[in-house]
Amino acid sequence: MSDAALMVGGLARSYLERVAMLIASQRSRLWRGVVVSVIGLAGVLAVGLDAQGVILYTNPDDNSDPSRNTSPPSAADGLAGWNIEAQWSSFLATPIDATHFIAAKHVGFASSTITFQNVAYQVDPSSRVSDPSSDLTIYTLQSGSFPTWATLYSSAVDGSEIGKTLTVIGRGTQRGASVYVGGSVAGWQWGASDGVQSWGQNVVSGLYDYNSYSPNSLLYFNFDPNAIANPAALCGGDSSGGVFIYSNGQWKLAGINYAVDSPWSLTGAANDSGFIADIFNAQGLYYKDSSGNWVLDPNPDTGASYASDISNELPWIESMVPDVAVPEPGALVLLASGVTFLLLVGRFVRRRSRSA
User: Fold this and answer.
1) Neighbouring C-alpha atoms within 13 Å toward the C-beta of 47
2) How far, in Å, CA of 214 to CA of 198, rounded?
3) What is the DSSP letter of 131?
């Protein structure tokens, strides 16, 4: 779709959070026109919704098969990333050195306790530092230290993310009711929230602006059934989970789950508030433009999911956490020699309108 509603993948679990997301004003977005932002609105004027579970494209004509990858992926599919994720209340967060972890800013201060590899750590609530140019935030442990942490993706070292396979991890909803257009399944609404960690894969479609002051600060991936096996899309509760890309012998943290395209409408009626769903074929559906009006999509476009781009924000991250693990270009020889870290990766969900 030419302009897709960007819906924050995050978190709003409570009724009040959902109301806040739905009454948030819409703002122009390069692509589709409406930014649907979630809780906290993280500097984006939009309508929000939480991203919770990872929804997979499987058996589109059989809603009785709401498959999810809830068991750890193989090493080839991102086991490293899966094992490097920490449970922070109902969300995920990712350690980036011995005493710091990174999360989605819009989820707020989720809890004073974070659990990593079955060990609970106390979080210093006053340590929060938020990136003014993205939906990223960093916290410091109050005591103790993580035994291992993620290596960060750097486009200077690893090359552009565009076109690369990703593994995404999240916690949230099951796949809900099918969305039918003209008798065919076009996608799925979000189902019951269970907080189960799950993973999926996709391919980075491109970059998108977090706001007018932060160009190319979001990665996005379309909910394209033909992109890869088990294509995934974000949904409510996936916010703050990690997106991992394999490069130079290891899985690296490339993004933090942020948003998805929504809402959609079957009728386009002025009084229709629409519905939230992950859509893989938007032809015949309505999306909202920058003025808040429903617009019919005549093309078989896909919805997209969005994640804050770690590489784009590396200068800020390194200024906050000097010891963060970011391989320098000169380290490539060592990496090629097999001196690498095995990062624990996971999975995530995605969705977005037509490619730019």
Assistant:
1) 22
2) 30
3) -
C-alpha 49: how far from chain center: 12
How far out from the chain centre does Cα 163 lie? 17
Measured in whole angstroms, the distance separating CA 261 from the mean position of its chain's CA atoms is 11
pTM above 0.70, yes or no: yes
Ranked by mean pLDDT, the top range of 33-37, 42-46, 136-140 is 136-140
Which element (helix H / strand E) includes 124? strand 119-130
Return the SS3 of 351: coil
Run of H or E including 81: helix 79-84
3-state class (DSSP) for residue 208: strand
d(CA 8, CA 256): 12
- The CATH class of 6-336 is mainly beta
- Measure the CA–CA gap between 127 and 182, rounded to whole angstroms: 52
CA dihedral 295, 296, 300, 305 (to 10 degrees): 30
Residue with tokens 């963060």, as numbered in its chain: 324
- Dist CA 40 CA 52 (whole Å): 16
User: Which tokens is 333 given?
Assistant: 């020889």
Q: How many helices (H) and strands (E) does the chain have?
A: 5, 21
What's the pLDDT tens digit per position in 88-128? Answer: 999 999 999 999 999 999 999 999 999 999 999 999 999 99
For the chain, the structural domain boundaries read 6-336
Please measure the distance between the N-terminal and C-terminal CA atoms of the chain and give it in whole angstroms: 9
Q: Taking a C-beta distance cutoff of 8 angstroms, is the pair 98, 144 a contact?
A: no
